[in-house]
Amino acid sequence: MSEENGSRDVREVLAREKYFSQRPKPLERWLWQQGIAYAAERVFWVHWEEGARRGDWCSELSLKQVARECFVDISTVTRAYQVLKELGLISREDPGRDPKDPFRQAIAITEVFAPRELKQNLSRFPNRVRSAPARISTLEAPSPAQPTAAQHLGPDKAAVPTRAESKAVLEKLSAGERHEFYLASRDRRTAMTFDAKTALTPEERGRVLSILENLSGAAPRQGAGPERRVLPVAQYAKARKFSPLEVARVRKSVLQIAAAGAGNELFREVLWSMEEGALRRFDARLALNIALKKIREGAWTRPNRLPPHWLVGARAEACGAA
């Protein structure tokens, strides 16, 4: 029996014209497998949808807003945050007091994440069938010389190759292809360039790309030596831009040790130095630690090339009252 509103089927109106949420099926099923409370799942999806809408997977929603969206009380939202943090699904950064009202707390910035287990097995889940060709950036589109594993093997043959199969295929690589494979596996890339007259069949090339896909999602080895914290020269030449969560973390850390009345200006100087100044050649956490150490020791000086009105009225006061 059809449900009609006048001459139109209400179900068709809901499905075709009204707003709807996009919940990736692999992530939704993974949440079901964890057996978490339904209220915690609601809270996660509220932040997921807001982060997807903004494009940076961060959201600035107060406890009251989240409770109103999920139809639960504030204490339930607080417990949901604890559960989601334990699962590694969210990270919340308290930016401190509201710059516009120092007697009120600013809204915490929440960033959502996908579980590592899901990332490692992402290639095993089927992709959606698109009715129209997808618009792919020229930087992301694979070149004809770098086909993906799915193009070689198809959806029915994208299984993980056995150790014996991997060894047999890798032994057929030429010297140049072995070097390309080494670089791709080191950089955790999922594609490599094969020789024009390669000895591998299309199926064997697909096996090689499948191996690279599994290597790219594997957890890094423990005890592999200290992490390189200084950025390469090619990256150092370009300015970087932090996410709202990282900006809030920098602001909170600076305000905790800054002298009264000098916190906002000091935060502006530190953030510029980390994004565009001398500290941009270091990893973000190392750069922040260097700045905080200089501030504590009284050795911090204003960057010479800092524009006078950089960030004034912008990200420094991005959070409203909770």
Strand order of the largest sheet: 3-7-4
What is the CATH architecture descriptor of the largest domain? Orthogonal Bundle
Q: What is the CATH third-level topology name of the largest domain?
A: Arc Repressor Mutant, subunit A
Helix-strand sequence: EEHHHEHHEEEEHHHHHHHHH
Largest sheet: 3 strands, antiparallel
Distance between the termini: 47 Å
Q: State mean pLDDT (0 to 100 scale).
A: 77
Share of helix, binned: 40-55%
Supply Rg. 25 Å
Would you tell me the structural class of the helices and strands? Answer: mainly alpha
Discrete helix count? 14
Morphology call: flat
The CATH class designation of the largest domain is: Mainly Alpha
The count of β-strands is 7
Structure description:
- Helices cover 45% and strands 7% of the residues.
- The chain has three domains: 12-119, Arc Repressor Mutant, subunit A (Orthogonal Bundle); 142-217, no CATH class; 233-317, no CATH class.
- The longest helix has 17 residues, at 38-54.
- The protein has 322 residues and is mainly alpha-helical.
- Helix 3 crosses helix 4.
- The strands form three sheets. A three-stranded antiparallel β-sheet has the order 3-7-4.
